[in-house]
From TrEMBL:
It comes from Aromatoleum toluolicum. Its cofactor is FAD. Keywords: FAD, Flavoprotein. Belongs to the FAD-dependent oxidoreductase family. NCBIfam families: PhenlGlyoxDHPadH. Residues 5-279 form the FAD/NAD(P)-binding domain. It comes from the Bacteria. This is NAD(P)/FAD-dependent oxidoreductase. It holds the Pfam family Pyr_redox_2.
Amino acid sequence: MEHTKYLIAGSSHAALEAINAIRMHDAEGPITVVTRDSHLPYSPTVLPYVVSGKSAPARIFLRDEDFFARNKVSYRPESALKALHAEENTAELADGSSIVYEKLLLATGASPAIPPIPGIDTVSYHVLRTLDDALKLRGAIGASKQAVVLGAGLVGMHAAENLVKAGASVTIVEMSDQLTSGYFDKVAADMIEQAFRDAGAKIMTGSRVVRLEPSAAGAKLTLENGTTLEADLLLVATGVKPEMAYLNGSGVEHQQGILVDDRMQTTAANVWAAGDCAQARGFFTGTPVMNAILPDATIQGRVAGMAMAGDPGMQDYAGGVPLNTYHFFGRHAISVGSSKVPEGGEVVTRFDEQTGRYLKAIFTADGCLSGIFGVNEFFDGGVMAQLILRRIDLTPLRERFVANPLAVGREIMSQTWR
């Protein structure tokens, strides 16, 4: 049976950051990476640009084979984790082989969450989570005339824009009463919606699909209000959920994701988790939350890697802060932090209708930034997240900050960064 000191299941941002952290403290300990994907590591965030043709598939990989060779890492694609026997420090792979590890990182990411719509198993549909998904969708877009996108999160909206630009008649169906409800407020969502309507897309918010069935075009959708839609291309973009079937009987506790402490340690000895599969402490709530974003995956991966290697310089995870950026029809939107106004807090907004610039900043009762959201506004999301995490009092600079969050945010961080 194969043995390794560090076993990493998964190959995207959390896994790669963990490798870097381990090698900073342990230059020689054997590392084995197993992943269900058949490719070199890539970021799911680049997939919409593969679909659009802006990013060539051959140029999207985060690391090459030489990286793994230099870092003495055995990289094993098409090696999905099938079962975990934590009490024996053993991982079983889908091909029937097993690996004994000393330390294990679960960075297995997430997969598309397919809604339980009656008839969904009778029609063909696309998802967008892997490179193979992106290539398949890219090949289908050019032939589509009537496309329906289920879900108005960022993945669905990116794909819908590509379909519009390819000349398809596009309908976006969303259960919530607004687009991008998990990221932006109603004002920002209305601006995004208007851009899509101006480009010719149809928007159906507050709509639920109750039945799917094959049709001459491809698929027929029936909505709760009785409306029917025909689609020759159907994209299901209704969110993601972690793959956790391999945890059955493992002793690793999980809810929405794999439960971890502030060192990314799971409830099982010698097992850590990071990235989209991990349910870690939320910065605002103090309770375990899912925060499936790229910046958080890198932070969690670094913490996990340092903890696994016993690096004395490791600092506990500070908690998840949402951060999302979105580009649409030549415009951009960004959201950082919580949209909830804390008790005694204050909301400051400004909106220039002529330029289409919108900014909303939320402050706590003691003057700290809690959330900031903008459309066609320029500010550094990473800096904003640090202002939130460090609980910096912005009261003396609030007017300047709201007027120019990019410059003032960087000014503050240059003075306080340690």
